[in-house]
Amino acid sequence: MRLLAGKRYKDKLARPLAALGADVIWLPDDPALDPRLAGHADLLAFVSGRQIVAAPAVCSDASIVNNLTNMGYTVHTAVGPRGGLYPADVGLCACETGKYSIFDPETIDPAVSDHLRGVPVTVSQGYTKCAACNVDDHSIITSDAGVSRASKNAGLDVLDIRPGYIELDGYDHGFIGGASFMLDKNVIAFTGTMDRHPDKERILDFLKKHGREAVFLTRDPIFDIGGALALP
Predict the structure, then answer these.
(1) Across-strand partners of 102?
(2) Ranges of H-type helices in the chain
(3) What was the pLDDT predicted at 185?
(4) What angle do CA 134, 7, 22 make, to 5 degrees?
(5) CA 63, CA 149: separation in Å to the nearest integer?
(6) Secondary structure of 75-104 in the HEC alphabet?
(7) DSSP secondary structure letter of residue 36
(8) Contact between 203 and 194 (Cβ < 8 Å)
(9) 78 and 111 in contact (C-beta within 8 Å)?
């Protein structure tokens, strides 16, 4: 499995990911974003099949672009506004499940719009990718009521969990999508343990229901890194 992830989390995650066979391209912080979120992969890039839309800060790194191009991906530069204040930071933060594309049409970058696939599910949450843990083509986990409602209306199976219990430096809490990502088609990786999360057993049961296994990358309490983006 090949992944895009924020370089600021390399010290914590490189070793456990390597042990699981993941090949990671580490993305630089984006100086245009709030420093607390500047290394979040879901704000730095969007992946749809062999198409990648990335922040200018990522595209300016020739080694990353060349590496992705040599692997057969086409890299596009985000064209929308970039900034540390919402909604200028969420242009790339759309969630694709495989069959559905969940996104806020008011905040999505035009370059991402060009490459969205599947049934559109429109929401008013710009941090869509961070708010939703993609389990499979038809199911997600979220604590966001608006994302949940729109997704259910579109036909997705949604596990609603309580907000909070996920760490994010500088904020009261983070989100489940930012603390997890698909490691391969049957494995969902979580940044840390969910022992303090009151919905831990419900989350694990939901994953089992959909034929997914959970792996925990560290012994720390689960924390939000903006997820990692799987490269198909």
Answers:
(1) 95, 121
(2) 10-19, 41-44, 56-59, 62-70, 110-113, 128-131, 145-154, 200-209
(3) 85
(4) 55
(5) 41
(6) EEECCCCCCCCCCCCCCCCCEECCCEEEEC
(7) T
(8) yes
(9) yes
The secondary structure element, H or E, covering residue 48 is: strand 45-48
Quote the CA–CA distance of 179 and 151 in Å, as a whole number: 20
- 147: helix, strand or coil: helix
- Compute the distance between CA of residue 125 and CA of residue 147 in angstroms, rounded to an integer: 7
Say if residue 79's pLDDT is above 90.
yes
Quick one: average pLDDT of 122-130?
Answer: 98
pLDDT tens by residue, 26-37 = 999 999 999 999
Is 143 in contact with 125 (CB distance < 8 Å)?
Answer: no
Share of the chain above pLDDT 90, in %: 99
Mean pLDDT of the chain: 97
What pLDDT digit, counting tens, does each position of 152-192 carry?
999 999 999 999 999 999 999 999 999 999 998 899 999 99
Q: How is 175-204 classified by DSSP, letter by letter?
A: -TGGGEEEEETTEEEESSB-TT-TTHHHHH
Domain that holds residue 9: 2-231
Q: Which of 87, 93, 12 is nearest to 55 (CA)?
A: 93
Say which CATH number the domain at 133 has.
Answer: 3.75.10.10
Tokens 């579109």 sit on residue: 154
Question: What average pLDDT does range 47-51 have in this prediction?
Answer: 97
